[in-house]
Amino acid sequence: MLFPADKRIDTFGIRNGFTVIDYGCGPGVYLRKVSELVGDKGKVYAVDVHELAMEAVKRKISKYDLANVEPVLARGYGCDLEAHVADVIYAVDMFHMIKKPTPFLRELHRLLKKNGHLIIDDGHQSRQLTKAKIKDSAIWHIDEEHGDRLKCTPIHE
């Protein structure tokens, strides 16, 4: 079940002052709403591997004056953000394209604060496959299942 972008984002648990990462942001469909939710004291990192996506994000930042949004070009599964920076990471409609899910999930684990959470959806794969990939990484706990997504928290040693 797909929701309009703003309504869907309202279910991600994003609050004022949070640092959020939109991993695999594409052209930035969710950025305006997330920018509003985190407010002036919050930060949004729009991460993608495609330079064209970064150009679209930069145009959106300029058009809507999204001063708290920063585009970040990823290289492979990694990016140049510091560790444990995010309160929330969401990866929407892209997990099914990840060829090596464990290294990808390790990078998200590195970026998330210890008490943060990850929102990840099935995209174009079965829920069973999404859950298997997450469990195989051995670094995430699946806390909640919703119709179109999972909420996960990092496992710490």
Keywords:
5 helices, globular, 31% helix, 7-stranded mixed sheet, alpha/beta
Per-chain topology:
Elements lengths: L4 H5 L9 E5 L7 H8 L4 E6 L2 H14 L4 E5 L12 E6 L9 H11 E10 L5 H11 L2 E6 L3 E6 L3
Helix pairs in contact: 4-5
Rounded mean pLDDT score: 94
Summed up, the helix count is: 5
Biggest β-sheet description = 7 strands, mixed
Oligomer type:
single chain
Report the portion of residues in β strands: 25-35%
| Adjacency order of strands in the biggest sheet | 3-2-1-4-5-7-6
How far from one another are the termini? 35 Å
Order of helices and strands: HEHEHEEHEHEE
Radius of gyration: 14 Å
Number of strands: 7
Which residue ranges are poorly predicted, with pLDDT under 50 across at least 5 consecutive positions?
Answer: none
Structural class: alpha/beta
Question: Can you tell me the overall shape?
Answer: globular
Quick overview:
This protein is an alpha/beta fold. It has helices at about 5-10, 30-40, 50-65, 100-110, 125-135; strands at about 20-25, 45-50, 70-75, 85-90, 110-120, 140-145, 150-155.
Could you please describe the fold and organization of this structure?
The chain has 157 residues and is α/β, with parallel strands linked by helices. Helix content is 31%, strand content 28%. It is built from five helices and seven strands. A seven-stranded mixed beta sheet has the order 3-2-1-4-5-7-6, with helices on both faces. Strand 2 (43-48), helix 3 and strand 3 form a beta-alpha-beta unit. The longest helix is centred in the middle third of the chain and has 14 residues, at 51-64.
